[in-house]
Each structure stands twice: as structure tokens, then as C-alpha cells.
Amino acid sequence: MHHAWIGLGSNLGPGIAILHAAWEELGHRNKIATLALASPYCTAPVEMASEHLFTNSAGLLATSLAPEGLLDVLLEIEARFGRHRPPSGAVRTLHEDRPLDLDLLCYDDMVLQGPRLTLPHPRMHQRLFVLTPLAEISPTLVIPGTDLPVSRVLARVAAVESGFLPRRLAWRPERIGG
What we know:
The chain has 178 residues and is α+β, with helices and mostly antiparallel strands. The chain has helices spanning 15-27, 67-80, 128-137, 150-160; strands spanning 2-10, 32-37, 41-43, 54-63, 101-107, 112-113, 118-119, 167-168. Strands 1, 2, 3, 4, 5 and 8 form a 6-stranded antiparallel beta sheet that branches.
């Protein structure tokens, strides 16, 4: 089995409920076991103009799927929750509001640069909304391709961040669609 770390995000709809439901769905998929889920965090949109705050978390999975196979599952779950992506090759806005965003952050200690997937996620080391929940579940994880653990990268980024800092929320009952 391989270990994979994912980022979960939502800024349309009841974010906590959506992230929890997506996590539950991952746990029911073949060849995937859910191991740890960080607290949800309220975060500001990054590199996009939106009035909607995000709910973000991070999770640790065990899987026998290859990285591209796991990516396919993540994209399929996003689509089930209403995420619409433009067809391959179409002009698109990089960052837009979305009910669910599932990012493959790390897969074991793999470093990969491919047409569909880059590992580790190319901007994870710059983003508090990724690093904060990730440090909660895997503070000693060394980001592949570096020799720095997540906790140290988080401390460096947090020391220079001057904007809206992630605020921890609680997993509480919330309904999707009402």
C-alpha cells in the first residue's frame, strides 16, 4: 500500500458538510483506505477574486492505486459534487469558485512531472490553506524533493503571511442542500 496526502477545499455551499461527505465517499472506494482527516479550516481565497471564503482540510490515505488512478478517483468525486472542469485544451480560468476541490498533494516520496499530474503539488509549500491542516495530521512529513518537514515549511510561510490566517473550525453536522 502507498500513502497519499490530499487537500480538500470548498467555497460554494456548506463546506464542512461537503468535505466530510467527500471524505466518506473516498473511504467507500475500492483500493482506498482513509487514515486521517485534519480539522476543517476557514481560509481566504488565494489568487482569485471571490467573495466566498473556503473551507479547507487535508487527509491521509492508504491506496494500492497508482498516482494517476487516484487522481482519476479524485476528479470523479469532484464531478459528483458539482465541480465542472473545462475540456482538455480549452481556455479556462485557473482559480474559480467550486463546491469541491480535491488535490493530490503527495504520494509516498514520489517526485513526478507529467502532463496530468505534478508531485508533490507544485504550490503546496507556499499555501497556508494546505500547510495548516496538513501539519495537523503529518507534521513530520518531508515534502518530496525537499529536506523540510511540513511543520517547518508552515512556520516559514506563517512568519511572512500578513493576510487572513486559517481559522480552525469544528466538524459539526451540516446538511448538503439545506
